[in-house]
Amino acid sequence: MPKPKPQLPLFGLMAVIALFLLPEACIGRNTNKDCGSTMCGNVNISYPFRLTTQPSNCGDHRFELECDNNNHTNLVMKYGRFYVQNISYDICTVKFSPNRSQNISCDTMQVMDANLSKDDNCSLPRYSFHVDNSCKGPYTLGATSVMFLVNCSEPMNSSSYINASRCLTISSYFYFLDSKTRLENFSESCTIDALVPIMVDNISGMSTSDIYKTLLLGFDLEIYGPFLDYCRKETEKPFQSM
């Protein structure tokens, strides 16, 4: 009597089928992979950064960038779109306690409001940039302060209000206000359009032209990607030991 053929258990059969039909199910093992450098315009895109056009297992999705049709590298966030002008890749030593330190990536990315243009004198910095300085990251502002872009229904005669309009507007008046402006100095006829990063300590005494020259230089974002996981582990330890 011939021996019966060994039967593949149903669970095993389903697993084999899944491997053939859903190969991407195994991609999770190889996420955040260093796939080497690529270029968008003159910007070097290396790990942990990635472009949206790269395979899904390349780079860290927290640091995803777009390369548009004009070869501009874009950082797209919920607050707006920023042109990436340069990325510097560095290693820093972070001291978490007197006896504990670790070398981590401390890359810096120079970005500029994508609404600004060197050729369009009517362009305004429309995008706010909000950062989380906790372990949630992944970006924090470098040596950068912020200023208010306000939209007023009438002209302001105070020296605190620096004209932000480089061309005539009929219905609105745009001004820059330093971030340290006291609440009582805000006019009720003005609303805040954006909180704009700028690479100066304060804008008091600056001309409209000087402010725009500074804005076109962009501002620095410090990148704490590989640090985030370590940071979270460190902050969780006190709670795990309770």
From TrEMBL:
Where can this protein be found? Membrane
Cross-referenced InterPro entries: WAK_GUB
Q: Where is the signal peptide?
A: 1-28
Annotated Pfam families: GUB_WAK_bind (PF13947)
Q: Where is the Wall-associated receptor kinase galacturonan-binding domain?
A: 35-93
**For this UniProt entry, what's an example GO CC term?**
membrane
Q: How is it placed in the membrane, per its record?
A: Single-pass membrane protein
Q: Which GO terms describe its molecular function?
A: polysaccharide binding
Any idea which UniProt keywords this protein has? Answer: Membrane, Signal, Transmembrane, Transmembrane helix
Q: What is this protein's name? A: Wall-associated receptor kinase galacturonan-binding domain-containing protein
UniProt superkingdom:
Eukaryota
